[in-house]
Design goal:
Strand order of the largest sheet: 1-2-3-4-5-8-9-10
Catalytic activity: D-erythrose 4-phosphate + phosphoenolpyruvate + H2O = 7-phospho-2-dehydro-3-deoxy-D-arabino-heptonate + phosphate
EC number: 2.5.1.54
Shape: globular
Protein name: Phospho-2-dehydro-3-deoxyheptonate aldolase
Keywords: Amino-acid biosynthesis, Aromatic amino acid biosynthesis, Transferase
GO molecular function: 3-deoxy-7-phosphoheptulonate synthase activity
Oligomer: single chain
Length: 362
């Protein structure tokens, strides 16, 4: 008979962990970079107005527009200044929220966003990334412009969610229980995308789940592990983003989506993402998609409450090459529309809302 030899603690723990570094606590970061009273008003007003659009109390169109991802806070702020000015001129028809994404879900490997790797060099200075992200969000709020973020890491919201007026759960995480639970406790409306395979039912199920109460583990403001109980988020909604099989922004798919939502006892409303599968990943098609949606909006199509656009200062995208300077204002992830195309597209959407109002007034 052989005797079992007890394994030492070191032999069974952290076998694949190369390094553990301390993470700044949410409370400390918010103390370093506090939300001003004026900025808080921008956040809460943005949330309330988005909710009113979702619930049909506001007939404006929600437009979430901005870079695919933020890699250069300075360029993102330059974009924000232009967008804030444009948002004022079309504010009667559109509620513009700037897309400010710091986390990138990857199909396999790749840069995971400003928070994870702010230096773009694999140094993974996460604490610096969190500080840069929060500082940029505060700077944009100071312009009077509400922001929208995708939430990927379940810890990240504790650091930035107080600055966010609209949130997103992406196609790769819509089926994740962790992200459905997270959405149920977030303080802003959350758009949940259909699956990468085009399955809209996944998003409908996620909206239903996120609207319910959940109990799960998370962290406190002080960074301590905790058990959280949520009340459920009634402001979650479907985002149609197409798939590898093709677009899904056609009137028939939107009507089917409304039927699925009603069958689940949920509000019949959806946003269309004009990029990704709906543009065939061709940034030049985004204005075409938006133009088609504008005509349908002007004609009184029901259920469509918002549009998402990927846009930056310079159209297209670029690769990060060591030793080479990046082109200012151009995406390093998905290709984006140019600023000029963005301005034209937003005015087209604003005109559609005005035409719809005129038709309704008779």
């Amino acid at each position: 008979m052989s005797l079992a030899i007890p394994a030492s603690t070191d032999s069974v723990r952290d076998r694949h962990i190369a390094e553990i570094r301390p993470l700044v606590s949410p409370a400390l970061l918010r103390d370093e970079l506090p939300l001003s009273d004026d900025a808080a008003r921008v956040v809460t007003t943005g949330r309330d107005e988005v909710t009113d659009i979702l619930d049909g109390r506001d007939d404006r169109l929600l437009v979430v527009v901005g870079p695919c991802s933020v890699h250069d806070p300075d360029a993102a702020l330059t974009y924000a200044r232009r967008l804030a000015e444009l948002a004022q001129s079309v504010g009667t028809e559109l509620r513009i929220v700037m897309r400010v994404y710091f986390e990138k879900p990857r199909t396999t490997l790749g840069w995971k966003g400003l928070i994870n790797d702010p230096e773009l060099d694999g140094s993974f200075q996460v604490n610096k990334g969190l500080r840069l992200a929060r500082k940029l969000l505060l700077d944009i709020l100071d312009l009077g412009l509400p922001v929208g973020c995708e939430f990927l890491d379940p810890i990240t919201p504790q650091y930035i969610s107080d600055t966010v007026s609209w949130g997103s759960i992406g196609a790769r995480t819509a089926q994740s229980q962790v992200h459905r639970q997270l959405s149920s406790g977030l303080s802003m409306p959350i758009g949940i995308k259909n699956g990468t395979d085009g399955d809209v039912q996944v998003a409908v199920d996620a909206v239903a789940a996120a609207g319910s109460s959940h109990v799960f583990t998370g962290i406190t403001d002080g960074g301590l592990a905790a058990i959280l109980r949520t009340t459920g988020n009634p402001d979650c909604h479907v985002v149609l983003r197409g798939s590898s099989a093709g677009p899904n922004y056609d009137a028939a798919t939107i009507a089917t989506t409304m039927d699925l939502l009603r069958s689940a006892g949920l509000p019949a409303r959806a946003i269309v993402d004009a990029s990704h599968g709906n543009s065939g990943k061709d940034h030049r098609r985004q204005p075409v998609v938006a133009g088609e949606l504008a005509e349908r909006l002007a004609g009184g199509e029901q259920g469509l409450v918002g549009v998402m656009l990927e846009s930056f200062l310079v159209e297209g995208r670029q690769n990060v090459v060591a030793g080479e300077e990046l082109r200012y204002g151009q995406s390093i992830t998905d290709a984006c529309m140019s600023w000029e195309s963005t301005e034209s597209t937003l005015r087209t959407l604003a005109d559609a809302v005005a035409r719809r109002r005129g038709a309704a007034a008779g």
